[in-house]
Each structure stands twice: as structure tokens, then as C-alpha cells.
């Protein structure tokens, strides 16, 4: 299992998307699964709707990072069938600034942002990690992106 959990924006002049072909080739050649931790911004806000980062409310300072992660996902989807991969997007509110409390339960979605009855999309770090490890131990999302939220 290759786990990739790194920013997609340029770091020292290099972007994650530039490494995807090599990572995919190495994973394929070695028969291992490739996994990416992405962001929520490339999720659709509703079925058939725009991606979160394409909405007017999305902060401009995060668009480059979001677009880069969307590019990584797009490139993964173009890979030959011989590559087993998954890409997991957290809820819109996720990170050290919103740690949340471990609940031990969450909902899994696909390409559409998962929200609660109040329209909030959030997940705590512990529960996000549980969902990620669950996918590693008991794969359910082969060659697909999924999202995790309360």
C-alpha cells in the first residue's frame, strides 16, 4: 500500500500531480494499492452541481491547491485498469482547527459533498482516520474517490 498524504500545491517548484505517473507505474509494477488523501473542494456541492471550489464563496487563496488536487484525481481516473487506487476526501470542515470529538460513526459518500440536516459538512480527525484505515483493511472503493462526513 502506498499512502500519499501531501499538499498538491507546488512545494520547492514541484507539484504532486507531476509525481502521479511515477507513483502509478511503481504501484502497478509492484502490485500494490495506491491511496491519496485529498481535499473536499473538488467534491460537487450537489448532484450535477459545481465543485465546491468553483462556487463564488470558495476562498480564492485556496483555489490553486484545490485545483491541483482535482487534477490528481482526474489523472488517477485516467490510469489503466491494472492500477488499484482510492482517493478519500474529508468533509468541508476538517483539520487541526476543527478537530471534533471521536464518534466512531460517520457517513460515506461518493463525489458529492456530504452534509448533515443543517447543511454542515464536517468530520473529526479520529473518525476520518478510522474511515481511511477501514478502506485499507477492507477495500470497498476500488479505483474510486469517496468522502467521509458526519
Task: Report a brief summary of the structure.
This protein has 150 residues and is of the alpha/beta class.
Description:
With 150 residues, the protein is an alpha/beta fold. It has one domain (2-149): Rossmann fold. The protein contains three helices and five strands. The chain has a five-stranded mixed sheet with strand order 1-2-3-5-4, with helices on both faces. Strand 1, helix 1 and strand 2 form a beta-alpha-beta unit. Helix 1 (16-30) runs parallel beside helix 2. The longest helix has 15 residues, at 16-30. It is globular and about 45 Å long. It starts with a strand and ends with a strand. The mean pLDDT is 95.
| Derived structural class | alpha/beta
Shape: globular
How are the strands of the biggest sheet laid out side by side?
Answer: 1-2-3-5-4
Which residue ranges are poorly predicted, with pLDDT under 50 across at least 5 consecutive positions?
none
CATH overall fold name: Rossmann fold
Write down how many β-strands occur, each being a DSSP E stretch of 2 or more residues. Answer: 5
Number of helices: 3
- For the record, the CATH architecture stands as 3-Layer(aba) Sandwich
Radius of gyration: 15 Å
Head-to-tail CA distance between termini: 27 Å
Binned strand content? 5-15%
Q: What percent of the residues sit in helical stretches (DSSP H or I)?
A: 25-40%
Instruction: Tell me, rounded to a whole number, the average pLDDT.
Output: 95
Report the order of strands and helices: EHEHEEHE
Level-1 CATH class name: Alpha Beta
- The figure for the number of domains is 1
Identify the CATH homologous superfamily: NAD(P)-binding Rossmann-like Domain
